[in-house]
Amino acid sequence: MGRILAIDLGTKRTGLAVTDPLKIISNPLETIPTHTLEDYLRNYFSKESVELVVIGYPKSLDGTPNQMTPLVEALKKRLAKVFPEMPTTFVDERFTSKMAMQSMIAMGTKKKDRKEKAGNLDKMSAAIILQTYLDRL
Fold it and tell me: What cellular component terms from Gene Ontology apply here (predicted)?
């Protein structure tokens, strides 16, 4: 019984989140430099049982693709090639960054810390993407 891992792809940083072993709760995992994603996943998959990768699918507010959409689609194709046994799926990621920021504010994170810790925002966004997927199950 494996976990589900979520990816919030960015041009510089990528946020990651993972479920608990029972696939009930989404937890922020890490923020990594985007260029290290493939190596990170290879290492993570060798240590942890993962049964699905959920990728945040970027869209404009009106539902049309935005500038990140082709990069995310290319990532899905690349993951299928590098990890052919690992299924992937997309989840609409509109508003996840805003929701992550609101969560940080609700937790009492100071404005200065929110600006300095952009990596926290990325992994929290990934956790929201993953929780969205879990809520739909």
Answer: cytosol
Residue 26, helix vs strand vs coil: strand
CATH of the domain at 61: 3.30.420.140
pLDDT band at 41 (very low <50, low <70, confident <90, very high): very high
Structure tokens at 129: 């993407």
Structure tokens at 29: 């995992």
Number of domains in the chain: 1
User: Dihedrals φ, ψ of 20, to 5°?
Assistant: -70, 165
- What pTM was estimated for this model as a whole? 0.85
pLDDT the model gives residue 96: 61
- Rounded Cα distance between 84 and 32, Å, is 23
State which residues form the domain around 71.
3-136
Helix (H, G, I), strand (E, B) or coil at 36: helix
In terms of Cβ atoms closer than 10 Å to its own Cβ (0-12, 13-18, 19+), residue 130 is buried
